[in-house]
User: Fold this.
Amino acid sequence: MAQTVDAPLWCVTRGAATDPAQRAVWGLGRVVALEHPDRWGGLIDLADGDRDLPLLPAVLSGTEDQVAIRGGVAHARRLTRTTADRQGWRPSGTVLVTGGTGALGTHVAKWLAAQGASRIVLVSRRGPDAVTLDVPGVEVVAGDITDRATVTRLVAEYTPNAVIHAAGILDDGTVDALTPERVAAVMAAKVDGARHLDAATRHLPLDAFILFSSFAGSVGSAGQANYAAANAALDAIAEQRRAEGLPAVSIAWGSWAGDGMAGDLGDRHRRGGVRPMHPATAVTALGRVTGNANRRCSTSSGTAPPPSSATPAPAPSAPTRRSATSGSTR
Ligand SMILES: NC(=O)c1ccc[n+]([C@@H]2O[C@H](COP(=O)([O-])OP(=O)(O)OC[C@H]3O[C@@H](n4cnc5c(N)ncnc54)[C@H](OP(=O)(O)O)[C@@H]3O)[C@@H](O)[C@H]2O)c1
Assistant:
């Protein structure tokens, strides 16, 4: 006989800062929080089970719903401002752009060309069938970046100086309507694509490895749990690379004005206080954020993944401390 459980749901992860699968739970959890606030408890990330577990009862009975426990101290998630490098990143040589035929990809391609990239390779499944761009240095090629061999081949053929991973798909639905297949499909383009690009380029001296993540992953967006999970996982891949000394930045974009994935959500975002960003502003931010690659950055309303770079601050009530998780990715 089915029983109704009305206890709040808490999700506990381990090492979510740099583990894409654990981090995906944070992206998904933030959407559950929006869709089912009555049932939502929160998210807790542990680093060291034995030391951290004794703090759980206090966190579970506290007021914070996104907490990382590190070294026996609980840190609450906070959004803080970050500064961006005014110089920014100056692209040069060859830049490989996945999802480059999409709405954002075409703005990015024009910006890359204007900034000095000599060869801009735009990849998507439809390739040249999707777009014709009369921009110097632009080549459009067909390829499915969920396929590892395809990504390996593209990297070998073009030897990029920088990678921008902007490929993605949507399959929106409330959490109760999602299926494993719907989650897997959305995760594949973003997360498998990023993993394949990471693996295929490790031997190259890249000057930028840029992942197009989303506000949905770091703040939440009702009806987009699969997309939020995928974007949160992207943020962890960037963290993972940086922890290994490799370049990476994951940019949690708010909506760009004009066409693109956020088109249908524009009004909802606007009501939520997130105004669409002009593409010219966005690409300028792209350069600055990437130039500032050792810091976490975000645009539009700003976002922040969980608690890797937590900077504890005094908290009003023990044991949870407020932590600056910065304005998003580094
Ligand atoms: N638009 C926004 O305001 C906004 C806001 C936040 C984040 N973002 C992120 O920015 C990125 C670009 O967004 P957009 O608005 O430009 O989206 P879009 O117009 O829908 O473009 C998506 C691109 O990804 C390609 N793609 C999808 N699956 C692929 C695969 N398996 N292999 C290769 N290419 C694939 C698509 O081409 P094919 O279908 O031909 O493969 C298309 O070129 C996305 O990652 C999105 O999550 C966008």
